[in-house]
Amino acid sequence: MTGPGDPAPHPAADAADDFLNRWLRAMAGTRDASPRTLDAYRRDVAGFLGFLTDHHGARPGRAALSAVTTQDMRAWLARERGRGLSARSVARALSAVRSFYGWLDTAEGITNPAVTATRAPRPAARLPRPVDTEAARALIDRVELQNPQDWIAARDVAVVTLLYACGLRISEALGLPRRAAPLPEALTIRGKGGKERMVPVLPAARDAVDAYLRLCPHDPGPDGPLFLGQRGGALNPRLVQKVLEQARMQLGLPASATPHALRHSFATHLLEAGGDLRAIQELLGHASLSTTQAYTAVDQARLMDIYARAHPKGAG
Asked: Among 151, 159, 201, 204, which one is most buried in terms of CB atoms within 10 A?
């Protein structure tokens, strides 16, 4: 409500803010979004509306919202990147704006194909962060020292050895049934999407699992899990993460030395030894060769680092 001396409210400003608030209420009601999520949505869309205000010199109303062009969207994305936002943050903001426009279409009949057709910037691919061969061996040795109970220490060594020697995901290792032991020369692993693959088992991994089973006081039966917790239930993956965290801190290794890093190490060390990329793809269970090709970038980066440190002019 305004007094006699107050300026009249700008109808476009009222429309933009009203649309934003109504959309947020709809998100809270239909999607049960958390307060933190709603705050993020509000910031992202309010930032977009603020950009339109600056870009066109007026707060956007119905007509302006429906008239946003591809050039406007590109200018907004460029401004966001220019403010130092990462590609992931910009993609999140664009997702919020698209959702806002989806609601505008349904609730207000405001359509804009330029907004819905805008593609988010592609985040830079995160290279795998493997540990080197010596560090992988040191981790396995150190894991054995983390628990005073011999069978638990042997269990942890067996799990970590499987991750590194077979390139398994932690869920795949902990999903093995008891009947899988004694481990054969090749394991059938069911990975993501239910895709099966054959993985050779190195003697070191087979021996580690045998040593664990000789000491394990529990017998869950052939259909029970291979790796057990202290009370005989399925082993929680968090315990494996924790024991590796303790070991890598004691060794002074980076925080990236996680259970999944051992899978990366498996692939990288095979590649360094001359392994075929297609074969490594099959061993890892990657659906696409492009996923496996990330390891070639790791190998090249490592070689360039060695070159820079070893060549007389490498650091110049």
From this structure: 159
